[in-house]
Amino acid sequence: MKILNICICLTFLTLAFPAAAQNDKQADKILKEVSKKYKSFKTIKASFTVTTENTANKDKKTESGTIQTKGNSFKLEFGGQEIFCNGKLIWTFTKETNEVTKDKYNPKSGGINPAEIFTIYEKGFIYKYTGNVVKNGVTIEKVKLTPKDKTKPYFQIELEIDNTKKQIQTMKVSYKNGMIQTFTITSVTPNIDMPATNFEFDAKKHPGVEVIDLTN
Question: What residues pair up with 133 in beta bridges, in sequence order?
Fold first, then answer.
């Protein structure tokens, strides 16, 4: 699985809510509470797992990763790769080959930046409340998102939200090609110090690294 598939599903915290005319009031209320919680954080470090299922051949694979975010910057570690983005440039480092690709960052490229797992619902979706369940004594609110743009590779996203913490627990993305990806947030640590260098690749730390510069 390519790391960019994860990027599609995971700049956050700066998006404005769309008009809620097409969204039900209960879902709107829940999501605004979640948004308020995440927007109170200056930085976020989170650990997660991603389970990818192929509905055609029943294959299933689970991998774990971490994400750090600060404003429009992020650092993602997943699947043997690290992605660094300072809001202007993006570096993709592959550990196995000791190779890094450097490119200009385009937030309008059509995907969703990894940090959007926290506020993915804020733009371009119709959302609907689908009920709640109790897991381990915790009430979990369920909201279904449908993209307004029908050219998106996915047709539905289902969120499970901890009603007490006002935090997203899981995000299940259903793709048109039959693939399903379920993102589970295992831990969230807000407001830790993150220097700007966290979000830039340092070639000095990787002797002999091959740099492929696509910025020119």
Answer: 140
For residues 137 and 50, what is the distance between their CA atoms, to the nearest angstrom? 24
| Whole-angstrom distance, CA of residue 163 vs CA of residue 142 | 10
Q: Tokens 């550990």 sit at which residue? A: 95
**How many distinct structural domains can be found in the chain?**
1
Q: What is the pLDDT of residue 110?
A: 52
In the chain, % of residues over pLDDT 70:
83
Please give the residue range of the domain that contains residue 19: 3-213
What ranges in the chain are assigned the alpha helix state H?
3-9, 25-39
pLDDT surpasses 80 at 158: yes
Cβ contacts of 185 within 8 Å, gap of 6 or more:
46, 47, 48, 117, 167, 168, 169, 170
- Predicted TM-score (pTM) of the model is 0.80
Q: What CATH number did the domain enclosing 40 receive?
A: 2.50.20.10
Question: Tokens at residue 38, please?
Answer: 């995440």
Q: What single-letter amino acid sits at 91?
A: W
Note the residue count of the chain: 216
Cβ atoms within 10 Å of 66's Cβ, excluding its own: 15
Tokens 């600060």 belong to which residue? 70
